[in-house]
Amino acid sequence: MCRFLRQLSVPILGILENMSGFSCPHCGKNVDIFKSGGGEKAAKELNVPFLGRLPLDPKLVEAADSGESFIEIYPGSEPAKAIEKICDSIDNNIRKKE
Predict the structure, then answer these.
(1) SS3 letters for the chain?
(2) Average pLDDT of the segment spanning 12-34
(3) In what side-by-side order are the strands of the sheet with 30-31?
(4) What is d(CA 71, CA 44) in angstroms, rounded to the nearest whole number?
(5) Mean pLDDT of the chain, nearest integer
(6) d(Cα 95, Cα 59) in Å, to the nearest integer?
(7) Is there a contact between 89 and 53 (Cβ–Cβ < 8 Å)?
(8) Minimal CA–CA distance to 39: which of 23, 52, 25, 56?
(9) Nearest Cα to Cα of residue 34 among 16, 50, 49, 55
C-alpha cells in the first residue's frame, strides 16, 4: 500500500496499529487478544513513522456511531490516552515536514 501511495505522491503520515489489544470495560486495562507490534514492525520496514496503538473498545464504536468525541466522553481512559498520543505524533510529524 505504501508503495502505491508513494507512486501517487500521497503523503504518508505514518502507520497506526488498530485493534491493538482490548480495553477491558470492567477494569479499563488493555489486554492483548491479538498479536501486538505488527504496526511498529511495518513502519520500520517501510521507513514511515509509527503513530501508535489504538486498543479495541466497544465505547469507541458507540461514540463514533453517535458522532460524539470519545476523548470528551471518556477523558483519561486508556483509549483516550492512546488517541491523544497518536494525534500528538501526527502533529509532530507534520511540523517536522514544514
Answers:
(1) CHHHHHHCCCCCCCEEEEEEEEECCCCCCEECCCCCCHHHHHHHHHCCCEEEEEEECHHHHHHHHHCCCHHHHCCCCHHHHHHHHHHHHHHHHHHHHC
(2) 81
(3) 30-31, 15-23, 50-56
(4) 29
(5) 86
(6) 31
(7) no
(8) 52
(9) 55
Q: What is d(CA 89, CA 12) in angstroms, rounded to the nearest whole number? A: 13
The C-alpha atoms of residue 49 and residue 43 are separated, in whole angstroms, by 6
Query: Residue 80: pLDDT band by 50, 70, 90 thresholds?
Result: very high
- Cell, residue 8: 501517487
Higher-confidence position of 2 and 70: 70
Distance CA 2, CA 23 (A): 29
Domain boundaries, the chain: 2-97
Fold of the domain built from segment(s) 2-97? Rossmann fold (3.40.50)
Which amino acid is residue 39, in one-letter code? G
